[in-house]
Write a structure and sequence with these properties.
One of its GO terms (molecular function) is bis(5'-nucleosyl)-tetraphosphatase (symmetrical) activity. By secondary structure, the chain is α/β, with parallel strands linked by helices. It has one domain: Purple Acid Phosphatase, chain A, domain 2, CATH 3.60.21. It is built from eleven helices and eleven strands. The strands form two sheets. It has a six-stranded mixed beta sheet with strand order 3-2-1-9-10-11. A five-stranded mixed beta sheet has the order 4-5-6-8-7, with no helix packed on it. Helix 4 (94-103) crosses helix 5 (107-115). The radius of gyration is 19 Å and the shape is globular.
């Protein structure tokens, strides 16, 4: 009876913090848009310099490949950044999982790859469009091994499922609510939507994720989603964090840095 009379308490936002002196830029789903990535990296560099000295790190949230025109270029750019800067890290998205499984000969995943924008990825690695069209699914799997260099495959196999920094948890898709982090499954970390997106309780960490497209940055009391659909909207988004502050940088809005809201 009391529950009918008393107003329901709204969940309180998590006050997430990074360690003193630490600055992080998380970058959302790129999906083959090397043009937007290069523009965003320039904007981040300018923002980082303007904010003064800090221990700055970059976290790519996954889904480097598919849909956009230059997945190969995106993978190479991120791979070079990770190789040359120890504080640049990248997570594995569901599209990397599909791509690697297809390369390894899983024909069911290869069919899924072709439905999910993978045709553009294959073209970006120099595969011939007519040859792709004529090939059987088995022949196409062999062509991937023939035409895609070993270096990007090795890099994609090395990607992490999650990263923890201070009060923040970085994942591609989300987490299974109520499960300790060490019990989370890769399938959920790379693919989950419900029940994660609608969950309002504290996860123990404030979750930064991509995977689910929203027109604007999707900030809730316990998470923030920064996949703004770069491949179709032209808007690639990064989230900057330092201390208890968060801010948005993206490839639209006149190259300005906007407060997270």
């Amino acid at each position: 009876m009391l529950s009918r009379l008393l107003p329901r308490r709204r969940p309180q936002p998590i006050q997430a913090q990074l360690p003193l002196g630490r600055r992080i830029y998380a970058i959302g789903d790129i999906h083959g848009r090397l043009d937007l990535l290069d523009q965003l990296l320039d904007q981040i560099a300018a923002d980082d310099a303007a904010r003064g000295a800090a221990q700055t790190g970059f976290i790519f949230l996954g889904d480097l490949v598919d849909r956009g025109p230059d997945s190969a270029g995106v993978v190479d750019r991120v791979r070079d950044l990770c190789k040359n800067r120890p504080d640049v890290r990248c997570l594995c998205g569901n599209h990397e999982e599909i791509f690697l499984g297809s390369y390894d000969g899983d024909t069911d995943l290869l069919r899924l790859l072709l439905r999910a924008g993978g045709h553009e990825t294959l073209l970006s690695y120099g595969m011939d469009a007519d040859e792709i069209e004529r090939a059987t699914i088995g022949e196409l799997a062999e062509m991937m091994v023939r035409d895609i260099p070993e270096q990007p495959i090795t890099f994609l196999r090395s990607l992490q499922d999650y990263i923890v920094e201070g009060d923040y948890l970085f994942v591609h898709a989300g987490i299974r609510p109520g499960l300790p982090l060490e019990q989370q499954k890769s399938r959920d970390l790379r693919w989950i939507r419900d029940p994660f997106l609608d969950h309002t309780a504290n996860h123990g960490k404030f979750v930064v994720h991509g995977h689910t497209i929203s027109e604007r940055v999707d900030e809730r009391v316990n998470r923030i989603g920064i996949d703004t659909g770069a491949y179709r909207t032209g808007r690639l988004t990064a989230l900057g964090m330092e201390g208890g502050e968060r801010w948005i940088i993206d490839t639209v809005d006149d190259n300005r840095s906007l407060p997270a809201s």
